[in-house]
Amino acid sequence: MLARVQSAFILGIEAFPLVVEVDIAGGKNETEVVGLADTAVKESRERITTALRNSGFTFPRGRVVVNLAPADVRKEGSYLDLPIAMGVLLAGSLVLTKLDISKVMIAGELALDGSIRHVPGTLAMAILARKTGVKILIVPQCNAEEAGLVHDVDVIPVSTLNDAVNYLLNPQKFMPYKTDYTERFLKDSPSIPDFEDVKGQAHVKRALTISAAGGHNVLMIGPPGTGKTMLASRLPGILPEMSFEEALETTQIYSVVSRRGQSNGLVRTRPFRSPHHTTSTVAMVGGGVSFQPGEVSLAHNGVLFLDELPEFSRATLEVLRQPLEEGFVHIRRANYAVTLPSRFIMVSAMNPCPCGCRTDPKKSCRCSPGEIQRYLNKVSGPLLDRIDLHIEVPALSFEDLSREGTVGPNSTMIRNHVQEARGRQANRFGRTTLLNAHLDSKQLKRFCKLSESAKKLLLVAIEKLGLSARAYDKVLKVARTIADLDNSDSVLDSHIAEAVQYRSVDFRSI
Ligand SMILES: Nc1ncnc2c1ncn2[C@@H]1O[C@H](COP(=O)(O)OP(=O)(O)OP(=O)(O)O)[C@@H](O)[C@H]1O
Ligand SMILES: [Mg+2]
Q1: 50, 58, 403, 421: which has the fewest Cβ within 10 Å?
Q2: Residue 188 domain-assigned?
Q3: Looking at ligand 1, which residue's alpha carbon is closest to its atom 18?
Q4: Residue 198 Cα, ligand 1 centroid: separation in angstroms?
Q5: Which residues' Cβ are closer than 6 Å to ligand 1?
């Protein structure tokens, strides 16, 4: 007999329909899996046979052919164990169900004792089920929180093969799982370190406030131990909470890379990714033989922190250009082409020279001019051009260091200020996801009109600093954000003057 079970495969962060066809005919006892299955899928044969036996079923006799359609897409991983096992039971008439099986999607890995293990990508599968009119989605118990975020689909969590069989026999005895995201969404976020712990560096805090308000990228340059890493790690604490749509997008990305025990439903804190400088280009943008999202997508809606910027390989930094400019990455390989969102704030930090002391007035630098040049050259001009705010982080004075108690606003106060500036942008652009940093030249012309005196001021600065056309746009965008923080509709001279400062660090000659 022939049975057809619906499942899905993941490409990038999206799920696509997959049908498991199982045919059992007379003849020699053998099982064959066809349809571009990788080793993990082929091995499922052994797992399924043992799991069925240990769950009280006898594997059907005869020739069992399992076809995975569409046949031209490579199937990877063990998430097809459960749909194949259910197909075998249905085709062998070991389970008879009144359910319309074409409206049931199934995913799950089997253990030898018949228990069901976590699989990645179940949120994407639930979204696909909703889109294709599949009413029921059977997933492992530990994936329930994540898949249950899609309320229009009946998510049935199962812990064992027998649970899944029982559901097909008596569906009315099972309650679909719906994740209560309203309650979860309002829960307090985990503690992020506070800006009030950072002594001095008021101008860096100001620049990070501008960055959070308008979504601008930042580069901090300064000697060791001046608080660069400390300041960057506090940025997520002043960013506004994610909207539900943003949280869902981020969860979908984390869902496909999730491992067993990590599936926790909605991701609601903004990601803070801090890849090591030895990170490869593939790990940075995504890719690999079987596609995995890279750091730029894992940082989507959050912060990508590149500490010790010149230590990253030039190739790894250059691949950041497209996601920085466009907010997504497009990757094409021989066997797939995927597009993933990657809209993040890039915060980077570096020393002014290999020994780090070149700008420290109390220490002497041991680097030769050649060493300094080689070090600085690792960060290319085009990449620097894409960073809106360049800030020097100087060594702290004794007075600042020895000051007791808190100085300046704490993260909650800064976040409220940021939130107000974002509110102004949302009113202007008609949506919350567009920020000043993302404006194209046409939008910039429309939304960022300058008075004659501000224009003149900007022209003088551009000429003096020899800035590129892109840098000119960046200054305008930063000035627009400063005006928003200032609660001002128009961009004034003072806003331009402050914005120009963030481009005037000629770090090659500090
Ligand atoms: N402004 C500051 N206020 C309070 N503590 C600070 C400050 N700057 C540095 N520190 C202390 O120094 C430690 C090191 O700071 P941090 O790692 O941020 O320096 P860094 O600038 O990133 O140095 P490097 O260039 O070596 O990476 C911090 O953990 C903190 O204890
Ligand atoms: Mg550091």
Answers
A1: 58
A2: no
A3: 227
A4: 9
A5: 198-201, 222, 224-230, 349, 351, 356, 396
Q: Both 168 and 213 in a single domain? A: no
Same domain, 160 and 252: no
Question: CB–CB of 505/390 below 8 Å?
Answer: yes
347 and 235 in one domain? yes
Which residue out of 198, 205, 218, 229 has the highest number of ligand 1 atoms within 8 Å of its CB and is therefore the one to mutate? 229
CA of 224 relative to ligand 2 center, distance in Å:
7
Q: How far is the CA of 221 from the centre of ligand 1 (A)?
A: 13
DSSP string, 245-268: HHHHHHHHHHHHH--TT---S---
What letter does residue 278 receive in the DSSP assignment? T
Are residue 166 and residue 218 in the same domain, yes or no? no
Task: Give the atom of ligand 1 at the shortest distance from the alpha carbon of 307.
Answer: 27
**Do 247 and 325 reside in the same domain of the chain?**
yes
Phi, psi of 28 (to 5 degrees): -60, 145
Flag whether 190 is in a domain.
no
Alpha-carbon gap, residue 413 to 58, rounded angstroms:
65
Q: In terms of domains, do 381 and 432 share one?
A: yes
Which H or E element spans position 22?
strand 14-25
Q: Whose CA is nearest to atom 10 of ligand 1?
A: 227
Q: Which domain holds residue 128?
A: 2-179
- Determine which helix (DSSP H) or strand (DSSP E) holds 140, and give its type and residue range: strand 136-140
Q: In terms of domains, do 206 and 132 share one?
A: no
Q: Whose CA is nearest to atom 27 of ligand 1?
A: 224
What CATH number did the domain enclosing 131 receive?
Answer: 3.30.230.10
Tokens of 180: 């209560």
pLDDT values of the chain reduced to their tens digit, one per residue, 510 residues? 889 999 999 988 999 999 999 999 887 878 888 777 777 667 788 888 899 999 999 888 888 899 988 888 777 778 899 999 999 999 988 888 888 989 999 999 999 999 999 999 999 999 999 999 999 999 999 999 889 989 899 999 999 999 999 999 999 999 999 888 776 555 555 678 889 888 888 899 999 999 999 999 999 998 888 889 999 999 999 999 888 888 889 988 998 887 655 556 778 789 999 999 999 999 999 988 778 899 999 999 999 999 999 999 989 998 998 899 889 999 888 778 889 999 999 999 999 888 888 777 777 888 888 888 888 888 877 788 889 999 999 887 777 777 766 667 889 999 999 999 999 999 999 887 789 999 988 898 888 888 888 888 888 888 887 777 777 888 999 999 999 999 998 899 999 999 998 986 655 554
How many angstroms does the Cα of residue 498 sit away from the middle of ligand 1?
26
